[in-house]
Amino acid sequence: MPKQRTPDEHGAVDDGAIEEAAAQAVAEVLGGPLDDPEDVPLLDESMLPEVVTDLVATSDKQGVQLGVLATRVESLDEALQALEESLIERVNLARPSRWAWEFLTQDETAQLWRETRWFVDYLTRRYPLVSEVSIPPCWYRHTVAVDELSDLYAAWREAYCSSSRPSTAMTAWRDRWLWPALNRLATYANWRECKETRRHVEPSARQDLTDDEFDRFVQADIANRPGARAQVMPWPTRKPAGKKGSARGGTASARADAQPAE
C-alpha cells in the first residue's frame, strides 16, 4: 500500500494519480507501456520534486487541451442543433413560408411586395421583352401575375444568391423558369387590354367561389366511405419475407398472397 503524502506547494496529490503518472512517465522513457504497473521502478526521493513538477506541467497542458476540445464539442453541438432546426423547418409542411401570399402578416406582405417590385423592375430593365410576353406596369393588379412573378423571383434568389460558385442553375433559371413563366403569363394573366390601352383594365373573365353545396356533398362522400382501410387489394400483394429457417413456408405464403382477390 502506498504511503500517504502530505500536501506540498502544488496542493494535495492523490497517490494513485502519482503512481499512474509515474508509470506513464517511465513508459515514455522506456519507449512503451509496462506490462504491470507494479513493475514501476522505485525512484530516488530526491527526484520526487522534479517528477511532481513535470506531472503538474503535464496536467496543465492536458487541461488546456481539454478546454480546446470542450470548445470544439460545444461548437459541434451548436452546429448540429442549427442543422436539426433547419431540417425541421424544411419538412414542417404545416407552416406556410414567406412566399405564401395568403398567410402573410402585414410586415411580411410589405416586405414581399418591395422585393417583388424590385425584381419586376430589374427584369424589365434587364430583358427588353417583345410585346407578346412583356409585363405591363399594372402587373400587381393581376393576382396570377403576382404569384408567378414572386415565385420567379424566389427561383432567381436560389440560382443567384445561394452561392458564389459558378453553377448551371443560373442558365437553368432562364430555360426552366423565366421563359416558361413569361409564356404562361401571356396566356393566363388576362392583361392583353392593359397592354393595348396602356392602362389597367379589369379582367373580363370572372370565376365564382365554391358554391354552398360543398359541405353537403363532402359529408355525403365521407358517410359512404369505410371506417377502416380494406385489407384485401384488387392487385397482387406480397408479405415481407419470413425469418431464416422458414423461407420455404414463407415462399408458399407469398405465393398464396400474390393471388388476385376474388
List the helices and strands and how they pair.
Blueprint: H1 15-30, H2 48-91, H3 106-126, H4 143-161, H5 169-188, H6 192-197, H7 214-223, H8 247-257
Helix pairs in contact: 3-4, 4-5
Task: Give a structural overview.
- By secondary structure, this protein is mostly helical.
- Among the domains are: 15-90, no CATH class; 101-197, no CATH class.
- The chain has eight helices and no strands.
- The protein has helices at residues 15-30, 48-91, 106-126, 143-161, 169-188, 192-197, 214-223, 247-257.
- Helix 4 (143-161) packs antiparallel against helix 5.
- The longest helix is centred in the first third of the chain and has 44 residues, at 48-91.
Shape: elongated
Q: What percentage of residues falls in helices of 4 or more residues?
A: 55-70%
Could you state the order of secondary-structure elements as H and E? HHHHHHHH
Oligomer: single chain
Tally of separate helices: 8
Mean pLDDT: 79
What's the number of extended β-strand segments?
0
Distance between the termini: 84 Å
- Rounded to the nearest angstrom, the radius of gyration is 38 Å
User: Could you give a short account of the major beta sheet?
Assistant: none
Strand percent estimate = under 5%
Helices and strands: which structural class?
A: mainly alpha
Uncertain stretches of 5 or more adjacent residues: 245-262
